[in-house]
Amino acid sequence: MILYEDAASPAARPGEHDVGGRRVAVRAFTCLGEIGHPRFRFDPVERRFVARRPSGTVSAGPAAPSAWSSAFARLPDGPVAVEGASREEEVRGAYLAAVRGALDAGRGAYLLDPPEAGLPAAPGAPAGRAPPRVAIFTWRPGDALESASIAAARRRDIPCGVAWPVIPGWTAEAEVLGPWLEGARAAGASFALPLAPPGTPEFRRLAVEARADVDPEAAEAFFDVMHHAPWDFAVAAALEAAVAEVRRLGLAPMPPRPAAPSEPAGNCRAASRLEEAASRCPDEHRAARLHAAVRWIDSCGRDLAAIHREGNFSRAFPFGPELAREAESALSEAE
């Protein structure tokens, strides 16, 4: 049995997070409590398995967009990830309230596993502008692809895609991955995010438990893969193959970056370009500088395209001429 109680205030947490190479500044949890089906789920932000109890109490809400927008206004600038959909969204309205609150607070949002009742009815972005909302549907052990949910998001002009952990011996295998990606594309997905899982003992243990829960006959062989195979090499090779398959199907390996209507188009485009450069960068120091530049753009509060047109961007941008040129190339395209 699942018991719902009303949350006294929004559960919105700041932090530097990453979803498929894109920055997330705030996580908004519209339901708190790991209860119900499936027994295990994969968290695409922390890239870990989460074990869930069959019954208990869930805290949901609030259902007022103003409560969420007020909470977001006190937190660091940048896109929001809205998550924690409730089975009772049609009654509770918490997910939709958080999505509307993000827009009212001047933020773009990633919608993680949104229920159809939690999807905004607003039209998509005008031509040439980034979408205000991007929906990401996460792979779940033993569950079928949520094709109907993807199609519902596309009917509302919300770009959508899928995310999954690339696990050798399981989700990295062609017989599992191929049909799943084909189904996502057929349902309307435009991107697919292969995520490299950590090689921690906790992840391996929960992965084995999750596999045994949905496919007991494969558990023993999968245990050997998870605990005896050369993990770093196997994951790197599987991730490369997964990205190649994503591209072969005509899907993007990164999601678009969402932007609220009030955000200058050039700022969003420049931040997006720097995120993409960071995702391709093998140099950790340079990648960290690119991420820091994205944070600066998100919080600068100025129209950077106008500063670029005046010829003053390199003076205002504090991360050196090389990164400035990268950002300016995107600002030029936004004009």
Structural class designation: alpha/beta
What is the averaged pLDDT score?
91
Strand line-up across the major sheet: 2-3-8-9-10-11-12
Number of discrete helical segments: 13
In whole angstroms, the N-to-C terminal distance is 55 Å
Strand content: 15-25%
Oligomer: single chain
Cα-based radius of gyration, to the nearest Å:
20 Å
Helix content: 40-55%
Low-confidence stretches: none
How is the main sheet built? 7 strands, mixed
Q: Tell me how many strands there are.
A: 12
Please write the string of helix (H) and strand (E) elements. Answer: EEEEEEEHEHHEEHEHEHHHHHHHH
What gross morphology would you assign? Answer: globular
Q: Secondary-structure map with pairings?
A:
Elements: E1 2-6, E2 11-19, E3 22-29, E4 31-32, E5 40-43, E6 48-51, E7 56-60, H1 65-73, E8 80-83, H2 89-92, H3 94-104, E9 109-112, E10 133-138, H4 147-155, E11 160-165, H5 174-187, E12 191-195, H6 201-214, H7 219-228, H8 231-248, H9 265-280, H10 284-300, H11 304-309, H12 313-316, H13 320-334
Parallel strand pairs: 1-7, 3-8, 8-9, 9-10, 10-11, 11-12
Antiparallel strand pairs: 2-3, 4-7, 5-6
Helix pairs in contact: 1-3, 4-5, 6-7, 9-10, 9-13
Structure write-up:
The protein is an alpha/beta fold and 335 residues long. It contains 13 helices and 12 strands. Helix 9 (265-280) crosses helix 13. It has helices at 65-73, 89-92, 94-104, 147-155, 174-187, 201-214, 219-228, 231-248, 265-280, 284-300, 304-309, 313-316, 320-334; strands at 2-6, 11-19, 22-29, 31-32, 40-43, 48-51, 56-60, 80-83, 109-112, 133-138, 160-165, 191-195. 44% of the residues lie in helices and 19% in strands. The strands form 3 sheets. The chain has a 7-stranded mixed β-sheet with strand order 2-3-8-9-10-11-12. A 3-stranded mixed β-sheet has the order 1-7-4, with no helix packed on it.
